[in-house]
Known about the structure:
Layout: H1 2-7, E1 11-13, E2 37-45, E3 56-61, E4 64-70, E5 76-81, E6 86-92, E7 99-104, E8 119-125, E9 142-147, E10 152-155, H2 157-204, H3 208-221, H4 226-390, E11 421-422, E12 426-427, E13 430-434
Parallel strand pairs: 2-8, 7-9, 8-13
Antiparallel strand pairs: 1-13, 2-5, 3-4, 3-6, 6-7, 9-10, 11-12
Helix pairs in contact: 2-3, 3-4
Amino acid sequence: MLLNKFYILVFLVFTNLVGFAQLDGDKQEDKWMEDNIFLDGEVTNYYTGKSIPGVTITASVNGSVTAKGTSDSKGEYKTVLEYDKTYTITFSKAGYINKTITMNTSGVPDLKRQKVPDMGAEITLFKPNDCIDASILDAPIGRAIYYPKKNVMDWDMDYSMPRLEKLNRRLDKCAKEAQKAKEEEEQKERDYNSAMKEANKAFAKEEWEDAVEAYKRAIELFDDRPEPKGKLKLIETELAKKAEAEKQRAEEKSRAEAEAIAKSEAEAAAKKAEEERLAKEKAAEEKAREEEARALANMVEEEKAKAIAEKEVQKRAEAESKALADKIAAKKREVKEREAKELAAKLAKKAEEERAVNQVVLQEKKEEVIIQVAQQEEQKKLKETIENKEETPKENIKNSSTIKFKKKKKTRHLYKKPNKHKKGKGPQPKKRIVF
């Protein structure tokens, strides 16, 4: 089954001599009618199948280089191999692991050389990695020899097949491991990005514990990345500042509490002293009030007794004064009555004398009063006229200084091309394989 699988890679095609990169040394165009073997093919990437240009191809016999060149822009090459020689052909390019094949053209009879088909080989290269040991390709990967019964140059499957299977198994395993590693790396990258996103979000909110935990997860995933380490340093600085601030606040609080206790104790002592002082003062005041009340009571009693005595004296004095006054009043009444009679007589006489005189004076006074009333009326009118002239008009309320108004805000398989022609034989097949 493995042999059948391998022969899927081996197939016959026809080819011409156009479009391949010719190695130096003998050219196929010049060796068209001579006895020789033409070798051509393509160099591709093992994993992608894309052609690799610029691959150095060296053909040597017993250590001496017979032909050398590079693959063209399509990764293609061609060269001429002579009979009765063993060629070692090496394919190399910087960044890739070299591959070597051998071509033993010995043992072909002279009469059969023109009928031996040409050869083709696609060489796949791959880049070195930790998965595969490059020493696996120190020996040639493939070997071609002459088979007399079929009169063909063909690949020695007993030699090439085990090597190809071993290499391909290893490369396929490496590819799976690489894919798995890639997927793991991608998942790791996603986990890292998720952790960083979570950490940065917590960092922005100053949720330091959540941020530290998320940054540590990111560092466990990629220890070589500086961002989470830098953020952790910033958090450490912030936490140190916060701890210092908390320490200062605690010290300030302790100080304030101690001061408050001391103040409270001082106030309590002062209050107690004040209460004691007030109590003493109150007691003294009570005592003074009691003494004052007693003194006042005594004084009241004394004043009451004195008032009673004075009232008795006053009553007696009043009685005596009244008696004397009544006596004097009686005497005065007598005198007044006598004087009143005498005065009445005089007044009657005088009234009679004055009545005549008063008639004349009364008439004169009446005329003077009329003149004074007329003068007063005239002065009143003059005064009203002057006041009307001097009176100023009232100012409009808007002009008043006391009123304020408010203001109004391709496929991997090679294509078929014709090969060399022989009279009556038709086109000869070419053996081709992928290494």
